[in-house]
Each structure stands twice: as C-alpha cells, then as structure tokens.
Fold 8-amino-7-oxononanoate synthase.
Amino acid sequence: MNEVLQRRLAERRLQSRYRRRRVLESAQGPRLQVDGRDLLQFCSNDYLGLANHPKLIAAMQGTAAQFGVGGGASHLVCGHSELHHQLEERLAKITGRERALLFSTGYMANLGTVTALMGKGDHILEDRLNHASLLDAGLLSGARFQRFQHNDMADLERRLQKLPADGNRLIVVDAVFSMDGDMAPLPALAALAQKYNAWLMADDAHGFGVLGENGAGSAEFFDLGQQQLPVLMGTLGKGLGSFGAFVAGSDELIEALIQFARPYIYTTAMPPAVAAATIAALDLLVDEPWRRSHLQELIRYFRDKAIALALPVMASNTAIQPLLIGDELAAMALSSALEQRGILVSAIRPPTVPVGSSRLRITLSAGHSKADIDCLLAALVEALAA
Ligand SMILES: Cc1ncc(COP(=O)(O)O)c(C=O)c1O
C-alpha cells in the first residue's frame, strides 16, 4: 500500500498541488499564531468574529459542567439532548421555517439531505461551482445528475425543459459560492423551480448569520419563505463561530430526514456544549448587530480601495473577496510573498477551483479593522510590484 501511495503523493508534488496543514497555536481571530509566527489573517470563515467570543466560551464551559463533554450516542438512540432540541427550535424560528434538524457538519447535512430526497430515476441539477459536498451528494444519490453553467438561468431552463416527465427534480445551489463569494440568484431559481415542478435546495454555509436584516442569511436577504425555498441548509461553524449544520423546512422534510438521511442517523450527536455555544451565537446575532454592519462596511472599504488599486477583484459583495490570479504557481507565490510580510491569505487552486482560475481567497471578518485592511492592501501592492 505505501508504495502505491508514495507514487500518488509524488505525482501530487510534481503537479505543485501538494497541500500542507499549518499548526495553529492560538484561538481564531484576526491575528493568529501559526508555526511560531504572528500573522494577520484573511482566510478564516469566522465572519462575525464569534469563534473566540467570551459568551460562546462561557456557554460551552457552563454546559459541559452540567452535560459533560461527549454526545454519547446518535440522536435516534440517546444522544438528542434538550440543548440540541432548543437549538433546532431557535434555528426554525430565525429562518421562518416549520422545523430545523441539526447535523454534525455541513458536509454531512448536504450528503444526508440530497441522498434522502433523491434516488434512482430522479433528476438533480447543480450549479457547476457548488461546494464539493453537494457534488459528492449528487453523485452518491444514484439520481441522474447534471451540472449547469454557473448562475446561468438560461442554461438551467434548457436543461429543465429536456427532463423526462417521470422522477422527482431537485435544483441545488450554494447560496453564496464559497470560492467566488457571489450569490446565487435565488428568486430566479425559485421561479424556475416552480415553473418546472422542481424542488429547490440552497446551501447557505456562507450567508447564514451574516446576510439579511437579522442575520438569517440568504433566504432573509431575498425574502424567500419555505414555499419558495423548501430546503434550506446552513452551517454553524462559519458565521456563527461554532460548529455543525442544520437543514430547515417543512415538518415533512425534517421527518423524512430523520428517517432516511444516513449521515444523520448513523453518527454520534454533536456535544451538547457545542449546541449551547451556538445558541449563545444566535443570541449575539440579536444583541450585537454591529458585527454585521461593521462587516458590510469593511467589504465596501476593501472593494473601493482594491478597485482603485486595479487589483483583480471578483464580482462579490460578500465577506469572500477573492483576487483572481489565474496561474496556480503565481497564486502560490503571491500567498507566500504576503506571508513573508506577516499576512496569511490562502491560495486556492485546482482541483478546488477550475484550472486557470487560481486565486487568493481573501475573507473579511467583523474582527478586522480598516487599519487591518490597509495593511493587507499595502502588502498586496508591494508583493505584486516585487
Ligand atoms: C458551501 C459549503 N457547504 C458546506 C460546507 C461544509 O460545511 P462543514 O465545514 O460544516 O462541514 C462548506 C465548507 O466547509 C461550504 O463552503
């Protein structure tokens, strides 16, 4: 086995696509201690700066003291604590859906939901830039699976028109595309879903907590209720600063997931203390709305300045502000040049993004200040001129 693996690993190295982990020696925040160095980071998904918030820490510690640490068993055996239940009720309320169901991770929520809803003889249509977990879910489901051009409603409609009459149809998109930062046109997707009798699922991993008046995410941003967007998935490890994920929708949807979603059924429940920390994060969406408005201000500030400096920004108005570089090696060289200047931004390259579209995935957080953004821009200008 090792010889086979060595060959495959060598091939990866030759392609310059070998990935390495960094060892973090501090909590999440704008400044990280990484491999013994202090770095100003623009690459985490802790968009609201909640991952190290004292209220989340206190909620976790207090709950662990009462409920212990381990989840103990799956939700269907004896792992479903009152804190999980409370969190599900809070998630249903904030998203304006009948019910919500917790999953241990977003990857599992996507895999579980798509495979529970779709099977042989059904049809899945996914945006070609969807997150890997949605693409994997489509393949695993056994349904007929096609990918439409990114955010291209005409292409999607052509494909819908050609579908045979039999089988259920599911359209699946990232609400905010994780590597591009742009949003899916959810109202247009909802209209097409209705016209062609398809179900619509949106993965709001990068919108939940951040977008919308109350932080309820992309569905709130576009004012789409359960009728128009029946399958809403969100994650809790990004904007909410905690861990886990959920799916929200009708009573029937949630009951079906409890019965049929294998990544829900066959896994240990997340620790109750994690659920408690997430409830604290939901409270902070109400108590500290400045986090969302400050983040929006930083996004505008970054874009205005980056455009004035002629940096290759992409068409995004969210906290994900990638700079399109194109060549993989050039993207990696720019990321290292920034790191030499004390700034951490990861280069994203194939297979995560299409060949020729390597980029620096800059992410902004409510924990950043305008001065932090000035530092980033100055380092970028210097690194690009070098
Ligand atoms: C769009 C999207 N969906 C799902 C996930 C998976 O969520 P989790 O990290 O909770 O597994 C991610 C990233 O991690 C993501 O970017």
